[in-house]
Amino acid sequence: MTTMTPGRELPHPEPDRIRLAEVLHALADPMRMRVVCRLAEAGAELACSEVELPVTKSTSTHHFRVLRESGVIRQAYRGTAKMNALRGEELEALFPGLLAAVLAAADAQAARLGPAED
After folding, report:
1. What are the backbone angles phi and psi of residue 103, rounded to the nearest 5°?
2. What's the predicted TM-score (pTM) here?
3. Where is the signal peptide (predicted)?
4. Dihedral angle at the C-alpha atoms of 4, 68, 115, 103, nearest 10 degrees?
5. CA 109 remoteness from chain centre
6. Do the Cβ atoms of 24 and 56 come closer than 8 Å?
């Protein structure tokens, strides 16, 4: 069993507080979509450092925070690493088909235009 480090718990919206507009805003940014696609591809928790973004560390932190605060991802400290996971089941229950459609659209765009250079 993994436990969170005391005093390092991060706030997450409860499912009944997650709003479609905030989720869509979070997904509208190419860097945040890159994070979501990488987490979906992994199918497991990843440390922030395992998701390569061509931005500064502070900007990367901002993108992860927007995703967490909108309810798209869940973050938890495991030792010194901040681990990230999609809230796929919760998002599916709230907005059926949304995440799958967004991920499929991202795949189709990549096939059509090639990998994003962002």
Report:
1. -65, -40
2. 0.88
3. none
4. 100
5. 19
6. no
Give the integer Cα–Cα distance in Å for 83 and 61: 12
Domain ranges of the chain: 17-110
Q: Which of 78, 67, 32, 77 is nearest to 51 (CA)?
A: 32
As a residue count, the chain comes to 118
Q: What digits encode the pLDDT tens for the residues 48-107?
A: 999 999 999 999 999 999 999 999 999 999 888 999 999 999 999 999 999 999 999 999
- The CATH code of the domain at 17-110 is 1.10.10.10
Amino acid letter, residue 29: D
Which amino acid appears at position 25 of this protein? H
